[in-house]
Amino acid sequence: MPFRLLIAVGLLCVLLPLHRGAPGPDGTAPDPAHYRERVKAMFYHAYDSYLENAFPYDELRPLTCDGHDTWGSFSLTLIDALDTLLILGNVSEFQRVVDVLQDNVDFDIDVNASVFETNIRVVGGLLSAHLLSKKAGVEVEAGWPCSGPLLRMAEEAARKLLPAFQTPTGMPYGTVNLLHGVNPGETPVTCTAGIGTFIVEFATLSSLTGDPVFEDVARTALTRLWESRSDIGLVGNHIDVLTGKWVAQDAGIGAGVDSYFEYLVKGAILLQDKNLMAMFLEYNKAIRNYTRFDDWYLWVQMYKGTVSMPIFQSLEAYWPGLQSLIGDIDNAMRTFLNYYTVWKQFGGLPEFYNIPQGYTVDKREGYPLRPELIESAMYLYRATGDPTLLELGRDAVESIEKISKVECGFATIRDLRDHKLDNRMESFFLAETVKYLYLLFDPDNFIHNNGSTFDAVITPYGECILGAGGYIFNTEAHPIDPAALHCCRRLKEEQWEVEDLMREFYSLKRNRSKVQKKTMSSGPWQPPGGPGTLSAPETQDRSRGKKPGKQKVPLLSCPSQPFTSKLALLGQVFLDST
Length: 578
Hints:
Helix 2 runs parallel beside helix 4, helix 11 (319-325) runs parallel beside helix 13 and helix 13 (372-384) runs antiparallel to helix 14 (387-404). The chain is globular and about 70 Å long. By secondary structure, the protein is of the alpha+beta class. The strands form eleven sheets. The protein has a three-stranded antiparallel sheet. A three-stranded antiparallel sheet has the order 9-12-13, with no helix packed on it. The chain has a three-stranded antiparallel sheet with strand order 14-15-16, with no helix packed on it. The longest helix is centred in the last third of the chain and has 27 residues, at 491-517. The chain contains 17 helices and 25 strands.
């Protein structure tokens, strides 16, 4: 299907006039400045509680005011919260945390880690912070954004994941040991999202470092999933990465599948790749034909299209935001309003909601402070200016503060019916939920830049334009500046050409010396200072902080709570030319 690439400055609509104060009986809209400050206070209550009670563990346990490791052992909340600090305007803390991470995070550890979660939270968080470092006042090294300590950390973490992709199909295992690779007894069954959610981070990494291996493995995984779809154009939920056979055949847009669809769109935007967008548009047709009923999306059997679960999952609430980014505003708003009615019913989105019965599903009544509906509200508000979307933001702030705020942060809501709490504050609360709330109420944030301002950066290979907008959020809400990929795309190739010329020059010089002095050189030529000195110099080894002994937490091979893709704000949008 023919379509054209458009710069989506058109996503910006003139914002509707907003009234002061929270809405009252006269229906006035929430005051963005008021709720912006409320959201900022929420962030610091949670962030300070983590630093005081849980660091260097991955996450805070807010009911017992201590910490635990969850997805690895990376001080995960600190990585996830780093770019949120800058979005809130706290450059001094951003700078401090950059130093802390370099001194304390070590990936050479005997830990079984989720390939999916490590990519979206750790690799994505470090890449985003690396690209935002200059804006945050960090003194960057020569060659930035194509070099830097956070980039090297992101590359190191990503290389630890590469063994998972060494399968007959090219689709990755769900879990990898960071020290030893894939365990011999590792299950080969991985969820669809755990296979198709790498192209944003890995293509960015390849472009910045010049090593194509990351983008190559991500593209192969996407292609294999595409080739595995059913005759009616749907994919299932879990697949065997050794045989390519579907194990769970439920098709939908929610948990286990969600970010695969979203990364097709984001990968197309980031890389200007028509094939990736064509894949998504074909999936979108099948999704509408077989899973959509009255602006809800159900689960169906992937080969027959028959309904298997008439369930709405809270993770599906990203979908209206995705619809808005491909220009389907009317359908996006109708679906959003369906989901908003569920929020109003419970003061949050239960993990599962039975659509025919209009109530929660047994043992799926919780709300772990997920961001998806807030994310969609932010995208749709940027596109429409509809004050209903600000009302969702207001309701989210009021509900979260009333139900889940405790002395040491914010606790997961175990049951929305009676407001019982669980002893966990997921790192995505600071990475996504608070960030999207703040951006909803902050129309002038630098993330919303429409290209009117930018920074010109001089690299060893020419001038580069950064910070002009079009940020693409990964599935953990870490913004990637797409312009940075073009800063470094030819860097390594040109560097190799220079190195070859210099080797040839020194070889000729050495040969003349042999003729004149009749002596032999003592070994192969190396650039002055040793191998690799033509590229940006490596920093000295980081001192590694040691954590107290902790019990290892076993991880599922596929995340039971995958998180959805966060697409580009004011980014490039593909539209059908018809």
